[in-house]
Amino acid sequence: MPDSSPVKRTPQGKARAKAVIDFIERLTVPSGTGQGRPFKLDAFQKLFIRAIYEPHIGANRAVRRAILSIARKNGKTALIAAIVLAHLVGPEAIVHGEIYSAANDRDQAGIVFKFARQIVDLEPELAAEIEVIPSTKTMIGRRTGSVYRAVSAEAGTKHGYLPSLVIYDELAQAKNRELYDVLDTSFGARQEPLFIIISTQSNDPEHVLSKLIDDGLSGVDPSIVCHLYAADEDCDLDDESQWEKANPALGKFRDREDLATAIRKAQRMPAEEPKVRNLFLNQRVAPVASLISRAEWMACNDDAALQDGEEVYLALDLSSVVDLTALLVGSVSDPCRIAPYFWKPREHLNEHSNRDFGASSRRYQEWAEAGHLLISPGRTIDPEAIALFIAGLTQRYRVKGLAYDRWRINDLLREFDRIGLQAYQDGDKGDGLRLVPWGQGFKDMGPAIDAVELAIIERKLLHPNNPILNWNMANAVATMDPAGNRKLDKDKARFRIDGAVALAMLLGLRSRDRTTTKPVDIEALIG
């Protein structure tokens, strides 16, 4: 069947890609491996360049965004600098082009500029064509009037730019998406805009880079290219075939012994392992080991919904009056289908987005707009709103029990009394909602964490891919006492873990009830 897509790898595109490759390979390596010799692009670098410049729609390049995600020390700085020069004075140069290499801080921005300047200094032909202004990390192409500048998130406003090319170095390390968004929305009327990102992966599944990689790998948009080099998430550290997956330059300009040394250190010192997996194996893992790996958690993603009238458990992690409150609903039957609910005070959305995700972030506002986050009016979370919501759940489902952290629970109990919701403490006799206090120490949380792990590993948990719960689970870190019991540690977690706490309480209560109410097999007892 003939290909009906307007995107083609045309002879014109192939000639463009070859011209870029030929230009780069005529440059001289200024420092590091291969210093003083011509650039020799590796196969993975040529593949990336061809993927960008070969596809065309008519006479124009089809690719508008390209992502190369690789482990550290695989030559990304050299590749960025070389592509910059190809657009400044090489085969991709246009009249009055604006080229930016973006980084998260001034020092990082200066590295790419310094490398590009060293290349220019080694090539008399380039030096004659380019004016270098070190004070502003700027280069100007004399023939075309094109400008290259290294910019960072620290350098004030970027509004007013009209880039033809942006290359973002290590987007994974960006504390917020302000610089990315400003550059991404500034291409304007450029005929062939191009945004290239070269970075290790972020450990945050909600980070802008994680979203871009996931979107790029989907293959839905032919204007996006994404090449991801990463080890399998559950691989052994000493599996050298996995090293090569994340380090395509291994044994060439990526030193094998340097990587092996880092791996051996991580094997001796478990605290080093998450960092090594993220930076050197390019895995999407947090610098501190999460309770549950992302691969295991996402394998339980399912949209199976709870049904009105079925038996469920509830678990509530009340926040301080200004922070995130989490309530989870989970089915009694297997697999446990859960529905998460979260609250934040309206007047703290902006402040807490900046606090938790970096300056100018709108993460909590975006979650609220998407329906993932419920908003409590004012500056505090109103316990009445939580009480009324729980009362509604008791009308919708047959609730077997509500597990709760004792923190601030008296405020909620007063609201139960005020709205007329009958409730009683576990162990007492009473009618209405059974309330089960759940300690946050090793005694209660140890079995609860075991229940979470077992449900996920055995795929007996189904979650609806709620981004807040996903974020909380990625942040969850457990500590262990000398006896091997575990609890969730909010102090060691980088960000909020309220949803993970609620999930542990819910599955812990569910497991405890099953153990205490398990029917006795009389025939087995009497033999």
Structure characterization notes:
It is a single chain. This protein is α/β, with parallel strands linked by helices. It is 38% helix and 19% strand. The chain contains 19 helices and 21 strands. The chain has an eight-stranded mixed beta sheet with strand order 6-7-8-5-9-10-4-11, sandwiched between helices. Strands 12, 13, 14, 15, 16, 17, 18 and 19 form an eight-stranded mixed beta sheet that branches. A hairpin with a 2-residue loop joins strand 2 and strand 3 (60-61). Helix 1 (11-25) crosses helix 2, helix 14 (383-396) crosses helix 15 (409-419) and helix 16 packs across helix 18 (498-516). The longest helix has 19 residues, at 498-516. The model is unreliable at 519-527 (pLDDT under 50).
Fold blueprint:
Layout: E1 8-9, H1 11-25, H2 43-53, E2 55-57, E3 60-61, E4 65-69, H3 76-88, E5 98-103, H4 106-122, H5 124-129, E6 130-133, E7 138-141, E8 147-152, E9 165-169, H6 178-184, E10 194-199, H7 208-218, E11 224-228, H8 240-246, H9 256-268, H10 273-279, H11 294-298, E12 311-317, E13 325-331, E14 336-345, H12 349-357, H13 363-369, E15 374-376, H14 383-396, E16 398-404, H15 409-419, E17 423-425, E18 433-437, H16 442-457, E19 461-462, H17 467-475, E20 478-480, E21 486-488, H18 498-516, H19 522-526
Parallel strand pairs: 4-10, 4-11, 5-8, 5-9, 9-10, 12-16, 14-15, 14-19, 16-18, 17-18
Antiparallel strand pairs: 1-2, 2-3, 6-7, 7-8, 12-13, 13-14, 20-21
Helix pairs in contact: 1-2, 3-4, 14-15, 16-18
InterPro entries: P-loop_NTPase, TerL_ATPase, TerL_nuclease, Terminase_largesu-like
Domain Terminase large subunit-like endonuclease: 226-508
Pfam family, one: TerL_nuclease
